[in-house]
Fold this sequence. Notes:
Elements: E1 12-15, H1 23-30, E2 35-38, H2 41-45, H3 48-56, E3 60-64, H4 73-86, E4 90-95, H5 97-114, E5 131-135, E6 146-151, E7 158-163, E8 171-174, H6 184-203, H7 209-231, H8 236-253, H9 260-270, H10 276-305, H11 315-332, H12 349-357, H13 372-382
Parallel strand pairs: 1-8, 2-3, 2-4, 4-5, 5-8
Antiparallel strand pairs: 6-7
Helix pairs in contact: 4-5, 6-7, 6-8, 6-10, 7-8, 9-10, 9-12, 10-11, 10-13, 12-13
Amino acid sequence: MEDFHYVAYAQEVIFGPGSVGRLGETVERLGAQRIMLCTSRSLRAGGYVATMESILGSRLVAIFDEVLPHVQDVQAEEASAFAEGKQIDAVIGLGGGSPLGMAKAVAYELEKRARPLPHPSTLASQPLVPVVAIPTTYAGSEMTAVFGITHTREKPPRKITVSDAKIVPKIVLYDPNLTLDLPPALTASTGINALAHCIEALYSRTRHPLSTAAAVSAVRHIAEALPVCYAQGSDLDARTQMLIGAHLAGRSLADVTMGLHHGLCHVLGGTANVPHGIANSIILPHAMRFNAEMTAQQLLPAAEALGVRVEELSPVAAVEAAAQKVFDLVGQMKLPQHLRDVGVREADLSEFAQMAFRNRTVHNNPRPVTDAGEIERLLRAAW
């Protein structure tokens, strides 16, 4: 890492129990008067939408609370048209990766409609519609300038990623209280998602000192806090530590390239409709093993944080032991460990491998992927 290059984003991050109570003052600083909220039905049922309504009052002029997983194109178009009709000047994403992704998608679409210039690089760096992110899971979307969107009209459906510096959330509010009633399964799956961010950041081809430091610290937080959060969801101290880990994990991946792991998870999510956290949980140990020969030195700090006695093993063996630790943790938290457990058909693995091989993210992998057969063998091991 003697040579590196990355782009950082201007964000205001507010962290701590009760920080959601500061939402009013944050949107006041933005000057926002016509705000849209993107969230899910479950969060409305949990009373969180009512909290937003109480805090924002008349400034909350639009609520889109039917966000489905994987940010579907039809819903993004519907939400964007709704936002345009309401003339919103800020959008809040409340929830996990999908509501936060939807908020980014709305901001992105509104900017395209308002400023259809041929050269996006000439646009101002500040978004026309700023995004405020309030995460309630550990998915990490709040720290990145990326969202995934599933093209449902294609056969089969295809999930792609959109990257644009202007959609990075301007303000992020982390309130551990909002994670206290996160169900054990979502705690576990989004926690493994956060861990996957760390692993991909550590061996990313564009890693840099800040991304590495954030990733190593995040793994330590996650390894200690995630099992406690899963077993004792009301433990505020553990939830706080886990949310710090998720924040650092998201930060570590915010400005580096992803690899095979995330490329495969996007295919499994967009085409096979596997929830993103579950896809991460199944694929991560196999991706770690696939990359072990090329990435052992980079992953040693993560292996140590996961409880591997790295001094007793070769670097490659230590990473393979860490992959087994992840696999075992997934099982201990009663998450699916095999693709067959989530409805993926063995007959479809070859097609999924071909789709993944065409994914640009896969070709950023630290171990070069030379043909779709390599991916298919990984998928069969995971099946």
